[in-house]
């Protein structure tokens, strides 16, 4: 399919070739259509979330601030990989330059690190709102929210910059064909003619530290939240609190479960799990959360749902809004 592209090179290649999903070539057209649909939903949904939060002064609360940042990160995450995937699956254009490959890798890792930090920040926001409601605005001031956002971004940059740098400075004297649909770290590391173990261990250890610590704090927050919720005397207040937290937990499950499965399958189950399954896991955890996050929040959050509907009404029913 790629012809001479499979030849070996004697120095770091100017171009890599992404295979896509090995073994599923017959399904590429369906995958291209599915990914294009999901990407369109992700762009539209997250853009609407950002627009309504920025335009509506009643949504200038900490929870909506973090949700707005999450939507922006979701757009970056999906845009880093999906357009190239669709190009591979639809037209067979699998080439990606050396610099573009590592730029894509950096944005993927940085965006995922920022997203897990934002999920922790949102869990903290719900903890303060439910367990310390009288001190909510005093604790989560604009300066505190800005500080949390800067800390999350700085952490991602500090941890993830060495990862791409270490790998990009290794010699690539073997195949330039990446058996993946984007420049996934482990897949590219296997193409080096030096020992990739240091960079691979760095990836595994620091990903585990970041995700493990965030999940531990998120779990602690929701344990305290549940204790406070079930201590409420009002059943209606209990339902409302559980409904809000339920949407957050759903978003976290969509992000963490396939993400961690992808990381540990690549390390521990690479000889037992088919390659196309490994690649699909890695692909889906980058596109499913950005696609479903705005849908979950748009449906489950009444204020956002109402604002989106009022924003879209003039587009779909211009005559009725003019008449009103």
What features would you describe in this structure?
This is Olfactory receptor. It is a multi-pass membrane protein. It comes from Peromyscus maniculatus bairdii (Prairie deer mouse). It is found in: Cell membrane; Membrane. The chain has helices at residues 28-55, 62-91, 98-131, 136-139, 142-168, 185-189, 197-230, 235-268, 275-300, 302-316, 318-323; strands spanning 15-18, 95-97, 177-178. The chain has one domain: Rhodopsin 7-helix transmembrane proteins (Rhopdopsin 7-helix transmembrane proteins). The protein is globular. It is mainly alpha-helical and 324 residues long. It has a three-stranded mixed β-sheet.
Chain-wise SSE layout:
Elements: E1 15-18, H1 28-55, H2 62-91, E2 95-97, H3 98-131, H4 136-139, H5 142-168, E3 177-178, H6 185-189, H7 197-230, H8 235-268, H9 275-300, H10 302-316, H11 318-323
Parallel strand pairs: 1-3
Antiparallel strand pairs: 1-2
Helix pairs in contact: 1-2, 1-9, 1-10, 2-3, 2-9, 3-5, 3-7, 3-8, 5-7, 7-8, 8-9, 9-10
H/E series: EHHEHHHEHHHHHH
- What is the strand tally? 3
Average pLDDT confidence is 83
The poorly predicted ranges are 1-10
Membrane topology: Multi-pass membrane protein
Keywords: Cell membrane, G-protein coupled receptor, Membrane, Olfaction, Receptor, Sensory transduction, Transducer, Transmembrane, Transmembrane helix
Function: Odorant receptor.
Family: Belongs to the G-protein coupled receptor 1 family.
């Amino acid at each position: 399919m790629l012809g001479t592209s499979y030849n070996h090179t004697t120095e770091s290649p100017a171009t890599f070739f992404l295979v896509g999903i090995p073994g599923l070539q017959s399904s590429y057209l369906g995958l291209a259509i599915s990914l294009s649909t999901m990407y369109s939903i992700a762009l539209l949904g997250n853009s609407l979330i950002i627009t309504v939060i920025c335009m509506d002064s009643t949504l200038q609360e900490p929870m909506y601030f973090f949700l707005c940042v999450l939507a922006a990160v979701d757009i970056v995450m999906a845009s880093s990989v999906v357009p190239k995937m669709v190009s591979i699956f639809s037209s067979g254009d699998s080439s990606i330059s050396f610099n573009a490959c590592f730029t894509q890798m950096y944005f993927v890792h940085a965006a995922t690190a920022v997203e897990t930090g934002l999920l922790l920040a949102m869990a903290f926001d719900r903890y303060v709102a439910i367990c310390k409601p009288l001190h909510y605005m005093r604790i989560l001031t604009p300066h505190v929210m800005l500080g949390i956002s800067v800390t999350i971004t700085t952490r991602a940059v500090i941890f993830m910059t060495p990862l791409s740098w270490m790998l990009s400075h290794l010699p690539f004297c073997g195949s330039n064909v990446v058996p993946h649909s984007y420049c996934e770290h482990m897949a590219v590391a296997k193409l080096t003619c030096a020992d990739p173990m240091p960079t691979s261990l760095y990836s595994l250890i620091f990903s585990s530290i970041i995700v493990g610590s965030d999940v531990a704090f998120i779990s602690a927050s929701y344990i305290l939240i549940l204790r406070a919720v079930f201590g409420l005397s009002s059943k209606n207040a209990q339902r409302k609190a559980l409904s809000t937290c339920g949407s957050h937990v759903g978003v976290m499950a969509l992000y963490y479960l396939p993400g961690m499965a992808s990381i540990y399958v690549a390390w521990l189950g690479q000889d037992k799990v088919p390659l196309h399954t490994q690649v699909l896991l890695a692909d889906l955890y980058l596109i499913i959360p950005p696609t479903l996050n705005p849908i979950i929040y748009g449906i489950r959050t009444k204020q956002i749902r109402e604002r989106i509907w009022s924003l879209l009404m003039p587009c779909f029913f211009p005559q009725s809004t003019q008449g009103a």
